[in-house]
Structure formats: C-alpha cells, structure tokens
Amino acid sequence: MRNSRSLRWVLALALLLSCQAGVSGPESTREQANDRDVVVLLHGLGRNNMAMWLLAQRLEDAGFHVERIGYGSLNASPREILEEVSSQIDDCCSSHCKTVHYVGHSLGGLLIRAYLQERRPDNLGRVVLMGTPNQGTPIVDRFRDHWWMKLLGPTTNALGTDGESFPSSLEPPWYPVGVIAGVAKWGYNEPWLPGADDGLVTVEATKLEGMSDFIVIRTGHAFMRYDPEVARQAIRFLNEGSFAREQQTDPTHPAVQAH
Length: 259
What we know:
Elements: H1 2-18, E1 25-28, E2 38-42, H2 53-61, E3 65-70, H3 78-92, E4 100-105, H4 107-119, E5 124-130, H5 138-143, H6 147-151, H7 154-157, E6 177-182, H8 203-206, E7 213-217, H9 228-240
Parallel strand pairs: 2-3, 2-4, 4-5, 5-6, 6-7
Antiparallel strand pairs: 1-3
C-alpha cells in the first residue's frame, strides 16, 4: 500500500512540474503609475507568469503596480534562469521606479534572493517568500537518481539539501524579508518529507537565517498562490514589515507558530 501511494504521489509531482506553458517574459497587470510602489512577482518551478494572476490582482487592488516575471525552468540551469530573470527585472524596474518590492513563490523566492545578492538595488523595499525551499527539499535528495527526476531538468535537481545545491549557494538576506510557509495534511509523504510540510517543502526548510518575520498558513504548496490569507499576509508585510497574528489557524499546532 505504501509503495502504491508513493508511486501515485511521484507521478502526480512529475505531471505537476511538466505542465509548464510557454508563456514567459514580464507582464504588467495595469499601466504603471509613477506614484505607486512596484511589486516584482515571480512564479515557481514548472509554471509561467500566468500562474500568479490572482495574487497579482490582489496586490493591484491593494495599491501596488505589479510586474509578473515569466521564465522557463525545466530545461535550464539556475544560472541560466537567473540571467533571464535579471534582464527582465532590470528592464522593468530600474532606478526611476519609486520603491520596488519582491514576492516569490517557491523557486521564484530563490531567484529573488539570488538577484538581490548580485544587484543590491537602491530602491529596494521589502521581500516576501512563499513556500520557498530556502534550505532545499528532501524530495530531491530522495528521488534524484530516478529517471523521471532527471527529465525535470538541472534546476529541479539543484534544489536538494546538500552543500552543492542552489539554495546553499545563497547568502543570508541584507534586506527585510518575510517568509510564509504552508502546512497541509498529506500523511503518505512522511517517509521522504518528515514533519509538517505543504506537500513539497517542509515548514523547517522555508526558514531563513536573518528573516524579519515568519508565519505558517494552512494551505498546500501549489494552492498557496491563490490562498486569500497568504495574499493578505503578503500585503501586510509589504506595507508594514510584519505579519498579522490574529488569523493563526491553530496556534497550539507546533507548525503554526510565529517567528
């Protein structure tokens, strides 16, 4: 039974990551206004900039101008992706912008960290990382040698927990950053993803040395992009530099604790 469940989960993961559409490049949700702060929004692995449409709309409704950055991720190395992303951000959000914030889901958060590590822009505001494997994910460690994992490309295989991984190459933040982790009940992934997790990334793996604030929300990894509470907390951090505490779903649960 365990092997059957494991196989179903693995196949679902492979299908999820292979459903990447061909949409890439920056996309603004509305005409930019000079008096609005900008939010650069990055999707995760195997997605495109359309995957963040609902969060982008919620950020726009909160008063921000949003730039969605699209990139291909399944057939490129982290360095190749970073170069594509960096070029787009440089083009859309140069020094003439008032204040530029960054919000990234999963791999998008790692790319934001890598970009800010190299660029250090003067107009940087705040950063929100959602479900980002800041310490890597044991799933990659567990399945790295499987043939189907190799098909998902070099970046997928660079998201493990070892010292050579992409997350391990990134320095602690020099900027204000809020980390949102998800937690969902899966059960059958416990052998290779122990502890509280969102289905792909453990709560502990999202934590980051030097983070300004941390919160856990009951939502799965993929659904985090659409979750209204995740959006509300992201907007709160961008505006105030901290998360709200009154909506903690279950404060007695060891995973649902504020930093």
